[in-house]
Amino acid sequence: MTHEQLLSALDPALRARVSSAHVANGTATLVVDASGLGAGARSELENDVERVVSALPEIEHVRIALTAEKPVRRILAVASGKGGVGKSTLAANLALALKRQGVKVGLVDADIYGPSQPQILGNTGAKPEAREKQLIPLIGAGELPVLSIGHLVPAGKALAWRGPMTGGALTQLIEADWGDAEVLVVDLPPGTGDVQLTMIQKHRPAGVVLVSTPQDLALIDAARAGQLFDGAGVPIIGLVENMSGYACPHCGEVSDPFGSGGVEQAAERLELPFLGRIPLSMAIRERSDAGTPPALEENELSAPFDAIAASVASWLEESA
Ligand SMILES: Nc1ncnc2c1ncn2[C@@H]1O[C@H](COP(=O)(O)OP(=O)(O)OP(=O)(O)O)[C@@H](O)[C@H]1O
């Protein structure tokens, strides 16, 4: 059996992936290029090549080495100064909107204080598997690849972690097998703690989106979180105002429980781009709690997320 005979047994799509093939003493050794494939497609490719080659006469063993160009993957951090301002809601919907706009995206939930992505993306209780010590992301609503601290430890457990443990967990999530994802949206815990420091020092985000509600206190904290990233030279892509303007589902009158326009004014003051506002809406909360976030499909509810995603996508393109 020559290596030409071996190659001709493979169909053209498989053959195109083989960068070298060699047969000696009944053992076929192939180097197969798996660039651009996710975890599932990679093992399918390996199985397909193995099945064809092992069925050939004179072949007793098949050894396959998969290689892949490391994709250029950028981290987009979603941060806030305070908890409960809608950072997780924005992170999930931003990731889904980016995905619909054609960006290959994965979502990391690094919020040790309250990992909420399993609930938002409807895969609470799922446990990721690992291959060669590397975690394989789970698939959440909208086919979004996702890994959360909440998938690794029971709710509340991660809270007691000390600095090095939180850093280790973040690294495990970020260095998981994200396949061909070009962007990882990272939902950070609120504030300026260990996770943020590890993020800046070890995994350097391409940029940060800051979320705040319009109240003064939330804004002051958001500005402080912004300073941490800015001081470390991580660009702030812009500010998002969440929970602005509540439209009464009964009479339609719009009120502003947390004030209005505060984030846009703060963005102006801080000379940062303002990315948009998301209304306070019962439907946004209900859909997030039910594991069917609004940005799963394009509609009235997804519109503010879609607009923010479009600005973020242009920013990523321009800064590449
Ligand atoms: N625009 C909105 N309209 C209505 N409810 C919202 C909106 N944004 C977020 N919520 C709800 O507010 C609560 C807090 O939101 P979320 O978990 O996204 O905030 P967070 O900043 O990530 O909080 P934490 O710091 O606790 O993780 C959730 O119940 C969520 O569904």
TrEMBL record:
Physiological role: Binds and transfers iron-sulfur (Fe-S) clusters to target apoproteins. Can hydrolyze ATP.
GO MF terms, alphabetically ordered: 4 iron, 4 sulfur cluster binding; ATP binding; ATP hydrolysis activity; ATP-dependent FeS chaperone activity; metal ion binding
CDD domains noted in UniProt: Mrp_NBP35
Gene3D superfamilies with a match to the protein in the record: P-loop containing nucleotide triphosphate hydrolases (3.40.50.300)
Residue spans crossing the bilayer: none
A matching Pfam family: ParA
Protein name per Swiss-Prot or TrEMBL: Iron-sulfur cluster carrier protein
Biological process according to GO: iron-sulfur cluster assembly
Residues that coordinate or bind ATP: 81-88
Key words of the record: ATP-binding, Hydrolase, Iron, Iron-sulfur, Metal-binding, Nucleotide-binding
Subunit structure: Homodimer.
Protein family per UniProt: Belongs to the Mrp/NBP35 ATP-binding proteins family.
Keyword Ribonucleoprotein carried by entry: no
